[in-house]
Amino acid sequence: MRKIVGIDPGKDGGVCLMEDYKVIELFPMPRIKSNVNYKKLAEHFQFCWEYGAEVFYIEEVHSLGMSGKKSNFSFGEIFGIKQGMLAMAKIPYDFVQPKEWQSHLWSNIDKVYSNKKKNKIDTKATSESTAMRLYPGVDFTKSKAASKNHDGLIDATLVARYGTMKLLGKTL
């Protein structure tokens, strides 16, 4: 049995613990007001590690050129702290580019195009469509009170699925 963790590292990201393609646990990025709660995040990582996760796959996203200096710095800080937490705990991790996992998981039936540009793929909507196809019984909302699916949980789940495929040699 392969136990993998997928991480969407954004401030509003998520963590997915998966065993042989089955979602075991989803954690929205814990917050205290507008900041990431790193103590709680460390508890989530520890839970996954104690469950037997072999490797943690982190989506290697980059700041957008249009973002401001402060938001770019904040994003880099959050990304680096998560990586440092795993390294300090000696938990194996690897990075996955968004285009890499998307090319292996998105199918033509999943693709949703932007209303503004007919040939531009809406990445959030396409990932949601893919997650709903692969995991129809999974609740991707951030809380019981939420009505919309949480894209951080969706991306973390798809990163974990890709990581499982990669470990099983199914991404060639």
What report would you give on this structure?
- The chain is of the alpha/beta class and 172 residues long.
- The chain has one domain (3-167): Nucleotidyltransferase, domain 5 (2-Layer Sandwich).
- The protein is built from 5 helices and 7 strands.
- The strands form 2 sheets. It has a 5-stranded mixed β-sheet. It has a two-stranded antiparallel sheet with strand order 4-5.
- Strand 2 (14-19) and strand 3 (22-28) form a beta hairpin.
- Helix 3 packs across helix 5 (151-167) and helix 4 packs across helix 5 (151-167).
- It is globular.
- The model has no long low-confidence stretch (mean pLDDT 89).
List the helices and strands and how they pair.
Blueprint: E1 3-8, E2 14-19, E3 22-28, E4 31-32, E5 35-36, H1 38-51, E6 55-59, H2 69-88, E7 93-96, H3 98-105, H4 123-134, H5 151-167
Parallel strand pairs: 1-6, 6-7
Antiparallel strand pairs: 1-2, 2-3, 4-5
Helix pairs in contact: 3-5, 4-5
